[in-house]
Amino acid sequence: MDEMLLLTRITLVCLICCSLVSSGLACGPGRGYGRRRHPKKLTPLAYKQFIPNVAEKTLGASGRYEGKITRNSERFKELTPNYNPDIIFKDEENTGADRLMTQRCKDKLNSLAISVMNQWPGVKLRVTEGWDEDGHHSEESLHYEGRSVDITTSDRDRSKYGMLARLAVEAGFDWVYYESKAHIHCSVKAENSVAAKSGGCFPGSASVILRDGRNKLVKDLNPGDKVLAADEQGNLVFSDFMMFIDKDPESRRVFYVIETEEPHKQIALTAAHLLFVADSNATAGFHSIKAAFASKVKPGQRVFINEGVGSQVKPVAVKRIYLEEYEGSFAPVTAQGTIVVDQVLASCYAVIEEHRWAHWAFAPVRLSYGVASLLFSKDNLLTNSTVQDGGVHWYSNALYQLGTWVLDKGSFHPLGMSINSS
Fold it and tell me: For the whole model, what pTM was predicted?
């Protein structure tokens, strides 16, 4: 049995490679294969503009202040020095403090350094302020935790700072502020922050509808359960639940709660999860839908709900969107690739804003599940399927890693999938 499982996994990985390479070749601006994607047009930030457009220490940005780190504190081990030769550190104190930062901040800063050199050959990224151990910043500044940096370009050309801020956003900083004519302020979420985890999930309290009409919590789903979903025409169908691609029953994460007008429904998803929407001016009907990241959904757009009457989902306007923490996070995948959660239709996929590509990439999983369902009874599917005990599924990890090789960075949600997180 172990040999069969190993052979199945090897086969699946080979198929993943083929599917992702094909996706990468077809991801150009046209429908033809082998065309290169045009570079993304970047718009400089305006003076005093900040992205995202919320306060720095809120869940939608870098999260709350967690306390000052000193050299003698237990949390000092959270800081790591950055010796990247492509970054100039001002280091006014001559203590090396500006080089100390969290790993997340270091990763984003190193990514930004590459972007700066690509944008302006011969120019390097310059850090004027990093970790502050001397109390030079305002109370509860993230500089005291090594989670923020103030940056300029090495030539100190202030005409570049608006674009520098934009590059910082693209590099993945969780909050970027064109704070001063003299520098750009950037910060990140805490390493252990629930807000730093994303991927694509529903909370443990979310529910689905089974074929017998009962509601069942997403966290309690078992392979073979028939759950309500929708086909490509928007017709409601029941589809097999196959596996969780992310499963974490204990930690708390930040979810986007999307609430509709009458009839009142709401669904909670992580930022990078895909939801089916239609523009407010789109004609009624399922043909006008598109898959969008939960973080991009806007009030006035239409989402699609199940009212329990009729055979198709119904469009309804989004009333408001807010952020909330929930316990547990689960990413179920059905054979149909869609799922109705809390009466709202959503995609089973996340991280990349192309539902069809993602569904195609999961074809080997559907094949494997189909074979398993023929060979085993439903009671045995749990032990013979691709469901994992917890964390991100190995198949999702493989897809993500391969995707980063063949697709450009802009193809992924900035909060993407944290491989090391659950």
Answer: 0.58
**For a pLDDT cut of 70, what percent of the chain falls above it?**
78
Relative to beta strand 125-129, strand 87-89 is parallel
Segment 50-89, tens digit of pLDDT: 999 999 998 778 988 989 999 998 889 889 999 999 999 9
The pLDDT tens digits for 233-282 are 889 999 999 999 888 887 777 788 999 998 899 999 988 899 999 987 76
Give whole-number Cα distances, 54 to 49, 61, 139, 190, in Å.
11, 7, 19, 17
Q: Is 179 exposed, middle or buried (0-12, 13-18, 19+ CB in 10 A)?
A: middle
Beta-strand pair 50-51/202-203 = unpaired
What is the residue type of 213? G
Q: What is the DSSP letter of 111?
A: H
Q: Are 61 and 54 in contact (CB under 8 A)?
A: yes
Q: Phi/psi class of residue 8: alpha, beta or left (left: φ > 0; alpha: ψ in -120 to 50)?
A: alpha
